[in-house]
Write a structure and sequence with these properties.
Layout (H helix, E strand, L loop, with lengths): L1 E9 L4 H37 L15 H15 L8 H22 L21 E4 L5 E2 L6 E4 L3 E4 L5 H9 L2 E11 L2 E11 L7 E10 L3 E5 L4 E3 L3 H18 L13 H35 E7 L3 H4 L6 H7 L1 H15 L2 E5 L25 E3 L6 E3 H12 L41 H5 L1 H14 L1
Parallel strand pairs: 8-11, 11-12
Antiparallel strand pairs: 1-7, 2-6, 3-4, 4-5, 6-7, 8-9, 9-10, 13-14
Helix pairs in contact: 1-3, 2-3, 5-6, 6-9
The structure holds zinc ion.
Zinc ion (ZN) binds next to loops.
Family: In the C-terminal section; belongs to the transposase 35 family.
Pfam families: Cas12f1-like_TNB, HTH_OrfB_IS605, OrfB_IS605
Keywords: DNA recombination, DNA-binding, Metal-binding, Transposition, Zinc
Length: 462
């Protein structure tokens, strides 16, 4: 299967090379700002003319903002506005103009309603402190031949990597990967080179293709699986917070920048800021590593993974929970599982956003009207079933997908203990109207004990 994948390597450039990288990123920013000024002046001119009553053919013609026409305009103007342009690869300027074209396109699409989501504002000028980045799409870039410790970049040459490029080099040698572009970035005190690669991935199929796993994401534990497995929340950020607070105090004692008095920050203040940035990077790296390991394991084990369609962006607006939710990386985990499931040919099922996975009894299907966040154990009022809150939710999620593993348990356990009195469907009256739209399928719901038994067999067998 051909997929688009990024391979990112930390770089160890020499001082001269670092100067070259900075220069290219600066050139990217310069071209972006130049193009933005051009477009902005044109739009303002046209708006002003329209306000005077000039219309139609008398208006100043619009400046096109496709990457192609921006590049053409830049090539005509560069000799005059940037006589030093030949110091950098032309790709640097193209990169800035391409970014500008995308920004303008997104703004226009958002304005005309073609783009969903939060409103995209008109692009702003990039200041000195914006993140350094530059993209190469043509020219001599890629991995160094015959050695797995260097990347090749236009103009800059061979740059040593901090880690081996083996993972990508093997694919390139075998001819199963094609590098499409290279982006250099400066993040958290370190240079990176990220390759966008068209790669032929042949991932192993999930070990248990018939297995359905429900994953309840949370804060107390990172995830609870319907198999009963609990993945602890490593709380990387909470651990680092102590050091971050200390560094914050340290920075406060040093002379930082002040816009009113035009005070430049001291070297010591900058050092503390660099330490803070490094710590944040370490936290993010540790978190990402854990999430990658978990998501890979899930898609390589289970045939179907059932997740909640959580509104993470909305949950982060809750200021009491924001730090903890961001610290877990729920949205990132879902993103990883979704794209990796495509590689491993496992399937992801997203439960409806309003499906009450926590409030539903995984034994009888009764839905509670209210369940406090502090109640860690689920007690069913209908059948008296008691279970860990998150495990109950995970089992409900797994039950949303028609169970394929039913055959694994003997049918006799279908109706043994804990059958609710009367018609189990009657319990639906306890569901708050308009809140529950997704629900376990009738089949899954009518045989809850069989499913649980299936889960139990699975967990004991493994
Ligand atoms: Zn129940």
């Amino acid at each position: 299967m051909i997929v688009l994948q990024a391979f990112r390597f930390a770089l160890d450039p020499t001082t001269a090379q670092e100067g070259g990288l900075r220069s290219h990123c600066g050139a990217q920013r310069y071209a972006y700002n130049w193009g933005l000024a051009l477009i902005k002046a044109n739009l303002d001119q046209r708006r002003a003319e329209a306000s005077y009553g000039i219309a139609g053919v008398d208006l100043t013609p619009p400046v096109a903002w496709s990457p192609y026409s921006l590049r053409r305009d830049w090539n005509q103007a560069k000799e005059a506005v940037a006589p030093w342009w030949s110091e950098n690869s032309k790709e640097a300027y193209s990169s800035g103009l391409a970014n500008l074209a995308t920004a303008l396109k997104n703004w226009n699409a958002s304005k005309t309603g073609k783009r969903k989501g939060t409103r995209v504002r008109f692009p702003t000028f990039k200041g000195k402190r914006t993140a350094l980045s530059c993209r190469f799409t043509t020219g001599a870039f890629g991995l160094a031949e015959g050695d797995r410790r260097h990347v090749k970049l236009p103009r800059i040459g061979l740059v040593r990597t901090h880690e081996s490029t083996r993972k990508l080099a093997r694919h390139v040698d075998r001819g199963t990967a094609r590098i499409r572009s290279a982006t250099v970035t400066y993040r958290g005190g370190r240079w990176f080179c990220s390759f966008s690669v068209e790669i032929d991935r042949r991932d192993p199929a999930p070990g248990r293709p018939d297995s359905v796993v429900g994953v309840d994401l949370g804060i107390k534990s990172l995830a609870v699986l319907s198999t009963g497995e609990v993945i602890a929340n490593p709380r990387h950020l909470d651990v680092a917070l102590r050091d971050l607070r200390r560094l914050g105090r340290q920075a406060a004692r040093r002379i930082g920048p002040d816009r009113r008095t035009r005070q430049a920050p001291s070297g010591r203040w900058r050092k503390t800021q660099a330490r803070i940035a490094r710590l944040h990077t370490a936290v993010a790296n540790a978190r990402r590593d854990g999430l990658h390991k978990l998501s890979t394991r899930l898609v390589r084990t289970h045939g179907v993974i059932v997740l909640e369609d959580l509104h993470v962006a909305g949950m982060i607006r809750n200021r009491r929970l924001a730090r903890h939710i961001a610290g877990v990386g729920m949205g990132e985990l879902r993103r990883q599982i979704t794209y990796k499931s495509g590689w491993a040919s496992s399937r992801v099922h997203l439960a409806d956003r309003w499906y009450p996975s926590s409030k539903t009894c995984s034994a009888c299907g009764a839905v509670k009207a209210k369940l406090r966040l502090s109640e860690r154990t689920f007690h069913c009022d209908q059948c008296g079933y008691a279970l860990d809150r998150d495990l109950n939710a995970a089992r409900n999620l797994a039950a949303l997908v028609d169970e394929v593993t039913v055959g694994m348990s003997s049918p006799s356990c279908g109706a043994t203990q804990n059958e609710p009195d009367g018609n189990p469907r009657k319990t639906r009256t306890t569901r708050a109207p308009g809140t529950a739209t997704g629900r376990p399928s009738h089949k899954a719901r009518s045989t809850p004990h069989r499913e649980m038994a299936a889960h139990d067999t699975v967990s004991t067998a493994s």
